[in-house]
Amino acid sequence: MTRFVGLAATGLALCACSSPQVSGDSAPAEHAAGCPHHGEHHGDHHGEHHADHHPRPGENPHKSHNAHHRFQNAEEWVKVFESPERDAWQRGDAVVAALAPAKNARIADIGSGTGYFSVRLAKAVPDGKVFGLDIEPDMVRYLNERAAREKLGNLKSLQAKPNDPSLPEPVDLVLLCDVYHHLGDRQAWLAKLAGQLAPGARVAIVDFRMDDIPVGPPKEMRVAPEVMVAELQQAGFVLQSRDDKLLPYQHLLVFTAAK
Fold first, then answer.
1. Can you tell me the distance from the alpha carbon of 259 to that of 252, in angstroms, rounded to the nearest whole number?
2. Torsion sign over Cα 46, 169, 231, 209
3. Residues spanned by the domain of 88
4. Which secondary-structure segment (H or E) carries 88?
5. Are residues 210 and 249 in contact, defined by beta-carbon separation less than 8 angstroms?
6. In this structure, how many other beta carbons lie within 10 angstroms of the beta carbon of residue 2?
7. CATH number at residue 27
8. Collapsed DSSP state (helix, strand, coil) of residue 133
9. Cα separation of 246 and 243, whole Å?
10. Are 206 and 95 in contact (CB under 8 A)?
């Protein structure tokens, strides 16, 4: 999914890795061939990514955020983000089922990208709303067009900011998939998020494990679950649940906002 890049993004100076150089509209095809297991959240917010950083398998390539918007071709990136290879380990339907949102819930998918999770969430809340937030304009365009094609009137994609969750209204659930480890000033970002939620809202974080796995960013870029818990608690959130078995390469942590 696109980084919430902001989400994903977040202000890290990312190190270069072994993936091939990508740039421009040709990047998706090249990268899809060499790295079929990208994570989906790519786009929305944070920090400054090192210009020479190249995504690794499982890492949202859009998280390599820079002023030149190298990841603009949504129609090409959908081949990566929505691929069966990624779905086999990302298990989008299982994640949504585990979150079990109320049918009238308001949800923000931060780093929504091409809508891998946003579409699933919109179908799960027919009487609610889903906001797909991304800093990449072409991803916003694509997801809005996809919502229209699939007749999902409760799904809307919006432009986000790199340093702000940018929620259009208070929501009951926030999903950050493969994005937390890219947030720059996480405490400042979380403080803003806390002020934009409905009372008792949940924040669900899906991110990569710290052990040896075939997808995801380098270990030094990942954030241990214990660190996430400490940082969310500092921002006023309470850990509701932690699931280390649902997904083969990621944790699912769910927090509740302070009342």
1. 22
2. negative
3. 1-259
4. helix 84-90
5. no
6. 45
7. 3.40.50.150
8. strand
9. 6
10. yes
Tokens 């929501």 locate to 171
Please write the tens of the pLDDT for every residue from 195-249: 999 999 999 999 999 999 999 999 999 999 999 999 999 999 999 999 999 999 9
- Nearest CA to 189 out of 229, 226, 231, 217 is that of 231
Both tokens assigned to 24: 């421009």
**Rounded to 5°, angle at Cα 159 from 100 and 26:** 100
Nearest alpha-carbon partner for 96 in 85, 86, 88, 107? 107
Tokens of 184: 């720059």
- Does the pLDDT of residue 42 top 70, yes or no? no
Residue with tokens 């365009």: 141
Contacts of 67 (CB under 8 A, 6+ apart): none
Would the pTM count as exceeding 0.85? no
Report in angstroms the alpha-carbon separations of 97 from 25, 167, 172, 181.
35, 23, 16, 24
With H, G, I as helix, E, B as strand and everything else as coil, classify residue 173.
strand
Number of domains in the chain: 1
Q: How confident is the model at residue 22 (pLDDT cuts 50, 70, 90)?
A: very low
Q: Which pLDDT tens digit goes with each residue over 93-105?
A: 999 999 999 999 9
- The C-alpha atoms of residue 221 and residue 169 are separated, in whole angstroms, by 31
The pair of structure tokens assigned to 204 is: 């669900």
Residue 57, pLDDT score: 37
Per-residue DSSP letter, 6: B
| Token representation of residue 20 | 């091939």
Q: Report helix, strand or coil for 175.
A: strand
